[in-house]
Every structure is written in C-alpha cells, then in structure tokens.
Write a structure and sequence with these properties.
It comes from Fusarium vanettenii (strain ATCC MYA-4622 / CBS 123669 / FGSC 9596 / NRRL 45880 / 77-13-4). This is Aminoglycoside phosphotransferase domain-containing protein. The protein is of the alpha+beta class. Among the domains are: about 100 residues, Phosphorylase Kinase, domain 1 (2-Layer Sandwich), CATH 3.30.200.20; about 55 residues. It has 8 helices and 13 strands. The strands form 4 sheets. A 5-stranded antiparallel beta sheet has the order 1-2-3-5-4, with helices on both faces. The relative contact order is 0.15.
C-alpha cells in the first residue's frame, strides 16, 4: 500500500449516507488486496467496509458486487448484503470500496478442531446444497459477472477477473481477457500469460550476460518452463477441439473456498461466507471439484 486509507475520509464518506447519524470506524483486518473496517452507524446493523487496491481497476469491485448479489439471489448460504460501493479511484477515499453488512462468527479455521463430527457433517451438507444451487443456475462463457444483477435474468458473463490474469505485471499485458467462449480459449490465454513470464525472465538475462548462480537458475527454469508451455500449446486442439457450438456452459465456481472464508458460531453452525472477489464462471470440468477447505489434512 503506497498510501493508507484515511479514517476521517472514510467517516466523511459514510456521513454522506447517514448525515444525521454518528459514525464510528475501526480497522479490523488486512488481506493481500484489501483492508477491512468495522463500521457502526446509529440505526443500521453493524457494517463492514472493504477497501481495495486497484489490482484490476473497476472490474474486480464491480464483479465482486454482482457476484454477492447473484449468489444471494440463487442460494440460501448466508452472505453479506451490499449496501453501496464505489468502483472508482476518483472517489473521496482515493480507493475502490464496498460497504456491506457484517456477518457474525469466527473463522472455521479457528473453530475446526473444536467442532464435533456431526456438526462438520452438517456444514459439508450445507456447502453441497450451495454448490448444487450454483450448478442449477448455469451461465454461458468463461469470465465474471457484472451489475446489474436482476433476480429475473441470468447474468451475462464478461471480462474475467482472476489472479492469473492480473498478478504481478500481468494486468499491463495486452492479452485477451475474455469473456472466453470455450475452454480452449481460456487455456490458451493462461498459457500465453505463463509464456510471457518466461520471456520476461529470458529478456532480463541475455545469452552473453554475466550472471550469478541465482539468476542462472531463474534462466534455466524459464527455459524449461517455456519448452513445456510450447508442448502444451500443441495439445490444445487435441484436448479441446475447435467447435462451432455456442458458448460453453459454465457455473460460478468457489473451489478456492478456505476455512478462513467460512464463519461459524460457538457451536460450529454456519453464520456466513465472505471474500467473494475473483469468483469466475468456469467450465464444468474445472468447477466440479472439492472446495479447498475439504482438501488436505483434516
């Protein structure tokens, strides 16, 4: 973070929404791209303000808002409710932000070892039902959804918001960011990004340059990886043949769902699921997998 969000500017922005109310703001937590603040206003229930870095300007915030609203529409899983938001860096805060209701509970990662097996079973059943609800509400094309979200209409898939597409300097690359009609197009885009990383390393260390052992290792890794990418690119047509069919059927996929994103009460009952950024509509072969909180050691 090159600059910290200003608490007074946060309060001023929130007072414009509740001009006759007292506003209290306190820092809560920080993630890779976000800072979270507890917000208390006279009248409304406790709120959470999520301020984000512009890792994928406008698109990440807009997609997160649409995703929360759509999942709230088609599932019964407890999610925050979006109150309002700004997807512009020109806001009074100087950051993109989302104001939403605050969910009670503690993270499942903290509670997991204290929860009995029957409660864990009930949690897994809830998430199975949640996944089934998303599966019943299928989309078309690979990418993310954006406002407006209407309960009577299936969202249209747009430009993808995904860490592999904006991590590091990738956000500045002139590449196709979707929406992708088919798996072959999405995989080709992912391989192109990996290839760009390799080429950047090789350009950094010309063949006749004197380099240390660490740089030599980086160069060898990039050369080997570029060779693997070239082989995979040749296999795309075999694995994903060209087709004249319409856009591939997809579903919103939350396979990266970890225990830190799941909130439970003292008894281990589900109270909410948070962190809905970068949730994309993915093809069935990718989406139909276990969430990360069920992977690894129990």
């Amino acid at each position: 973070w090159r600059a910290e969000p200003d608490i007074e500017k946060i309060k001023s922005t929130l007072r414009s929404l509740w001009p006759s109310s007292t506003v209290q703001v306190a820092f809560f937590a920080q993630g890779a791209f976000n800072k979270l603040y507890h917000v208390i206003v006279e009248g409304p229930p406790p709120l959470m303000l999520r301020i984000s870095l512009p890792v994928d300007p406008r698109y990440k915030t807009l997609s997160e808002v649409a995703t929360i609203r759509w999942v709230n529409t088609v599932t019964t899983i407890p999610l925050p409710q979006v109150i309002t938001y700004s997807s512009s860096l020109d806001s009074a805060l100087g950051f993109e932000w989302i104001l939403m209701t605050r969910l009670d509970g503690t993270s499942l990662s903290s509670a997991w070892t204290h929860i009995d097996f029957s409660t864990k079973t009930a949690l897994v059943r809830q998430f199975a039902s949640f996944t089934a609800s998303l599966f019943r509400n299928q989309l078309s094309g690979i990418g993310n959804i954006y406002p407006p979200v209407l309960s009577t209409l299936t969202p249209t898939t747009g430009r993808i918001v995904s860490m592999p597409f904006f991590w590091g300097d990738r956000i500045n690359l002139d590449i196709d960011r979707g929406p992708f009609r088919h798996s072959r197009d999405w995989i080709a885009g992912r391989l192109q990004l990996a290839e760009s990383d390799c080429l950047a390393v090789l350009r950094k260390y010309p063949a006749d340059a004197e380099i240390d052992s660490d740089a030599e290792d980086d160069k060898e890794d990039a050369t080997r990886t570029a060779s693997i990418i070239a082989k995979l690119q040749q296999l795309i047509d075999l694995v994903f043949p060209e087709t004249t069919k319409g856009e591939e059927t997809t579903v919103l996929s939350r396979t990266d769902l970890s225990r830190s994103n799941i909130l439970v009460d003292d008894a281990g009952n589900l109270t909410g699921v948070v962190d809905w950024e970068c949730v994309s509509a993915l093809p069935m072969w990718k989406a139909c997998s276990y969430p990360s909180f069920l992977e690894g050691r129990p």
